Amino acid sequence: MKVFKNNFLLMVITAAIFSSCALPTSYIGDTFTPTENVDVFYAAKDVKKDYRVIGHISSQASANENDAKQGIINKAKKIGADGVIILGLDFTGGKDSTPFFKSEAIKYKE
């Protein structure tokens, strides 16, 4: 029984460490039914379907840019976006400026 308790405690601590590695991602805009797939674009001209912007997603940048991109995609799925247009890197400004990636969440017109 003691081994089970120790293993369980180790699993809880490990989960807490990995969940704390997630980058802060914020969203402002409309929400829809969650989606499974999100198209990723780096310029509005690359989107070949009619669409509308439903909101803006930002994700804190890290040493691994793919983490920030994945955070944007995950948030887009949750809010029901069909795609995201990643606009680039920006900074919060001020003395302790934090870099973050900006993007637009889009919904295709039917």
Describe the 3D structure.
The chain is α+β, with helices and mostly antiparallel strands. It contains two helices and five strands, in the order H-E-E-E-H-E-E. The protein has a five-stranded mixed beta sheet, with helices on one face. Strand 4 and strand 5 form a beta hairpin. The protein starts with a helix and ends with a strand.
Write a short abstract of this structure:
The protein is built from two helices and five strands; from the N terminus they run αβββαββ. With 110 residues, it is an alpha+beta fold.
What is the 3D shape?
globular
Overall pLDDT: 83
State the share of residues found in helices, binned by percent. 25-40%
Class per helix and strand makeup: alpha+beta
Largest sheet: 5 strands, mixed
Which stretches are poorly predicted, pLDDT < 50 over at least 5 residues? 12-20
Strand content: 25-35%
How many β strands by DSSP?
5
Rg is 18 Å
- Our measurement of the CA-to-CA distance between the termini, rounded to an integer number of angstroms, reads 57 Å
How many helical stretches?
2
In N-to-C order, the SSE pattern is HEEEHEE
Biggest β-sheet: strands ordered side by side in the sheet: 1-3-5-4-2
Which characteristics define this entry?
2 helices; globular; 5 strands; 34% strand; alpha+beta; 110 residues
Element layout with pairings:
Elements: H1 2-19, E1 25-29, E2 39-41, E3 51-60, H2 65-79, E4 83-91, E5 99-108
Parallel strand pairs: 2-4
Antiparallel strand pairs: 1-3, 3-5, 4-5
